[in-house]
Amino acid sequence: MKSKTSQLIYEQIANRLTELIERGTYRPGQRLPSVRQMSRRQAVSISTVLQAYRLLESRGLIEARPQSGYYVCAPSRNSLPEPEISSPGPDPCRVSLQELILMVLRDTLNPNLAHLGAALPNIELLPVERINRIMAALSRQSGRELHEYQFPPGLESLRIEIARRSAMYGCSLSPNDIVITSGGNEAIDLCLRAVCWPGDIVAIETPMYFGTLQALETHGLRALEIPTHPRDGISLEALQFAIEHNPVKAVLVISNFNNPLGSSIPDEKKKELVQLLERYDIPLIENDVSGEIYFTQERPTVCKAFDRKGLVMLCSSFSKDISPALRVGWTAAGKFKSQVEWLKFTSTGAATATLPQATIAEFLKSGGYDAHLRRIRREYARNVSLMSQTVMRYFPEGTRVTRPMGGFVVWVQLPDTVDSLELYKRALAGGIAITPGYVFSPTNQFPHFIRLNAAEWTYATERALEKLGEMVKELTESAA
Amino acid sequence: MKSKTSQLIYEQIANRLTELIERGTYRPGQRLPSVRQMSRRQAVSISTVLQAYRLLESRGLIEARPQSGYYVCAPSRNSLPEPEISSPGPDPCRVSLQELILMVLRDTLNPNLAHLGAALPNIELLPVERINRIMAALSRQSGRELHEYQFPPGLESLRIEIARRSAMYGCSLSPNDIVITSGGNEAIDLCLRAVCWPGDIVAIETPMYFGTLQALETHGLRALEIPTHPRDGISLEALQFAIEHNPVKAVLVISNFNNPLGSSIPDEKKKELVQLLERYDIPLIENDVSGEIYFTQERPTVCKAFDRKGLVMLCSSFSKDISPALRVGWTAAGKFKSQVEWLKFTSTGAATATLPQATIAEFLKSGGYDAHLRRIRREYARNVSLMSQTVMRYFPEGTRVTRPMGGFVVWVQLPDTVDSLELYKRALAGGIAITPGYVFSPTNQFPHFIRLNAAEWTYATERALEKLGEMVKELTESAA
Fold first, then answer.
1. Does residue A110 belong to the interface with chain B, where contact is any CB pair within 8 Å?
2. List of residues 6+ apart from B46 with CB closer than 8 A
3. CA-to-CA distance for B457 and B385, rounded, in angstroms?
4. pLDDT digits 0-9 by tens, B239-290
């Protein structure tokens, strides 16, 4: 309880300071009160103030200058507010983006591009050597148990480890609540199929990860986009309105660090969301694949933590933080668990491959996972902050950029005159892969947005952003 | 060409002798002409006659007695003809067998049962040590390439090996024709989704592997069962009639060693099937998962070998002969390849796990696969033959049993008074798992059939069959 309370206090301080900076009370270049002063003034501990300042740093609002204190960042920051809340139309629609997504995926395979496009984790930050050692040891020491037919729900040792960790984000899952899947995408795909039938309406946050939009399309589901704020996620008012006016069969959110939006639904709002859907008896499919990659002090909770009726279907995976090529994800699908398990059996005929499951179970059990997570959180926080700052430096006025508190993607709203598909083409010709906003909405709500992958930060990344900024300027000017 | 012709000749001879034995021209206990006599009489080589006799042996019709020659088997053989051709009704129907299948699958996990139920490969016949050594070596020697994000169609090195082997069954696939899947079931599931939409009609061989019936059910497809002969598979006349009277969207067959029926479509008939479907422009989903486990001298071809218009979607996997827990299957889906690739991406978000793919590629490349296959073919041929003979010995008159030329399941038609679900329950109480015929037809065409897994042959297997035979007798008598 204690640490929960102190987290709230430092977040409150940081949010208040953010407001003061954005309103100009603290101006760029100005020094903030020292940690000691602020501690006295707010009657909180030194460490709480330090946490608040670090949060502001990771938001790119202030910077520490050695021996001197914390300063509000360069003026151009003010020209780059967060993107506006999304405001899609009120009607559900069928999804069709296949061609464009295939194009974007093909870019990923081109080794000659600067890869700001696909949201792949930085392979340098995966525990490759450790995982390879575990796989080698398991293969050497094991016999036939690695090759016996396995049925869903999947390896018990892995389900035990996942259940154990669930306390960290407010759940108390049992191994029996969990079904292992082939990555997070299969988890979401199976959950959708468990509660929907072709033609059904699914209310989603918008923008939304295009892989999920594709799952909707291939199953003939209709997406109903709900306005979503870049900081705190889906609008509950808009969602309630949508539910009251449409036969919504399921709701789908990326509760922590939405891809591409970076939004996270605050804990209290998660609870309200779950209660709202309980009133209407509508299942919630919750994507938490990036939940472990948080930049704040504590793991954010999940909606599942507030689930009393078994309506929340929590989906996650180890693809972002351990290995995308092991293809291990999972879902805790509440009262739909048996149906998900059955669909898993009918679609892939058995459990996910055994060795990848056993490998992750061993990694989680042996205790290296948390130290690994601490390391990659620091790296991604730094890279995301650098990405935001660098966009700020090189992109023209009228650009807006997110300041996500986790994950590793940044969502950029370009000036209204810039078409992201045109920019995508120019960037590609210039050796840079980006993801145009088109693929994140079935009704094309984001023609002036791009998503940038901030997983890796190198000199080449910075040069690519500089070049990209020039292109955006050219497009702005040619339109003027 | 030469070996192709001689195969046909020895098969012709064996089939003629089978007829003569079944009509009683050669009677039980009688000696067949010696190999030398038969060679002169038929004007064929000694080795061709030997092949024909071996085929009859594996059909359980004759037996070799050392120093003496070949003799027609015991009289009870005549009371066990092959099951009749299936004769389902003419209307398509929705599929619903979930409960019963779950029950059968749960049995598989019970270590106290004699497992004649699920069609699992014999783990003693999997190359477990070799595969574990390869996995260990790859894990030790590899770096990040085992963990990079992979998109469909899957690992090129594996697709190259699969393409190379395709010549053995009459195809000339290129690596680009192939999409790697999570086992054979996913291959079939994706192919169905690529060409059908909920409500569509799929014509299938009946009986049909229940996993495929479940894929049809979960996608809301209607199955139209086509009469299928236990020896040569789907009836082309019935299929044509069905196509002319229904909007059939796809046809699905297990072309070699149907599970559970054991039927194999002869090469010439495969060609006719493909040509028939070409005329109506209907895709053929071809399941060949057991194609490598043949008891004849040569690998049977596949329908895909006769595909000129890209309508045949060949599906296979390495689950039966290498490891069911690596979850590696594949499909060569002809002109639907891109759609299958796309569905694979949207349902599992990426390729199948990398290490299992790389492991199988290495096993295929290093040349141990064919020697391994030769070994397991001999074992399975023996076990299947023993299973047929033992059913013959212990089951009452009126029982019919298949004599499959590959795979490892046997399909038993019980006397009409015996309900297979009743037998299933009694067998379970007696510590024996079997699969009742109910799960192999969505319209319950096979209430008096059971499927037996002949993958393993031990003393316990024989005792279990003896016990099972007693139960069948009791059920027959209690009905009389």
1. no
2. B35, B36, B39
3. 10
4. 999 999 999 999 999 999 999 999 999 999 999 999 999 999 999 999 999 9
Q: What pLDDT does B259 receive?
A: 97
Tell if the CB–CB gap between B349 and A102 is shorter than 8 Å: no
Q: pLDDT tens across B276-333, in order?
A: 999 999 999 999 999 999 999 899 999 999 999 999 999 999 999 999 999 999 999 9
Q: Of B347, B357, B376, which to mutate for an interface test with A (greatest number of A Cβ within 10 Å)?
A: B347
Taking the CA of residue A282 and the nearest CA in chain B, the distance in Å comes to 21
Which chain B residues are Cβ-neighbours of A149 within 8 angstroms?
108, 118, 120, 319, 324-325
A62 versus A322: the higher-pLDDT residue is A322
Contact, A336 vs A249, CB < 8 A?
Answer: no
Instruction: Please state, rounded to an integer, the average pLDDT across all residues of chain A.
Output: 90
**Rounded CA separation A26/A39 (Å):** 18
Alpha carbon of A133: minimum distance to chain B alpha carbons (Å): 6
CB contact under 8 A, A183 and B147: no
Q: Can you tell me the distance from the alpha carbon of B301 to that of A152, in angstroms, rounded to the nearest whole number?
A: 33
List Cα–Cα distances, B192 to A343, B315, B388, in angstroms: 15, 11, 34
A246 has a chain B CB within 8 A of its CB: no
Q: What is the pLDDT of residue B265?
A: 96
Q: What is the pLDDT of residues A12-67, one digit of tens each?
A: 888 788 878 776 678 777 888 888 988 988 888 988 898 889 888 877 788 888 77
Confidence check: pLDDT of B73 > 70? yes
CB-count exposure of residue A50 (10 Å: 0-12, 13-18, 19+): middle
Instruction: Specify the pLDDT at position B29.
Output: 79
Query: Chain A contact for B289, CB < 8 A?
Result: no
How far is residue A240's CA from residue A69's CA, in Å, rounded to a whole number? 46
DSSP bridge pairs for B229: B233
B313: helix, strand or coil: strand
Q: Is A147 in contact with B326 (Cβ distance < 8 A)?
A: yes
Q: Write the CA distances from A10 to A33, A291, B276, B388, B390, integer angstroms.
A: 15, 20, 73, 75, 77
B135, B140, B346: residue with CB nearest A214: B346
Taking CB atoms and an 8 Å limit, are A348 and B186 in contact across chains? yes
- Report the first-to-last Cα separation within chain B, whole angstroms: 55
CA distance B253 to B228: 10
Q: Which two tokens stand for residue A338?
A: 């048996």
Q: What is the pLDDT of residue B95?
A: 56
Check CB contact of A323 with chain B, cutoff 8 Å.
yes
Asked if A151's CB is within 8 angstroms of B132's CB, the reply is no
In the predicted model, what is the mean pLDDT of residues B191-199?
Answer: 95
Domains and CATH numbers, chain B: 2-79 (1.10.10.10), 98-124+371-479 (3.90.1150.10), 142-366 (3.40.640.10)
**Residue of B345, B352, B456 to mutate, interface with A, max A Cβ within 10 Å:** B345
Query: Which residues have CB under 8 Å from B185's CB, separation 6+?
Result: A346, A347, A348, A349, A350, B211, B212, B215, B317, B329
Torsion of CA A104, A105, A107, A108, to 10 degrees: 130
Interface membership of A109 toward B (CB under 8 Å): yes
Quote the pTM value: 0.81
Beta carbons within 8 Å of A124's beta carbon, 6+ residues apart: A456
What's B89's DSSP letter?
-
Selected residues 148-167 of chain B with any CB under 8 Å from a CB in chain A: 148-151
For A387, A452, A468, A474, B151, the CA distances from A114, given in Å and listed in that order, are 14, 11, 11, 20, 19
Rounded to a whole number of angstroms, the distance from the CA of B166 to the nearest CA of chain A is 24
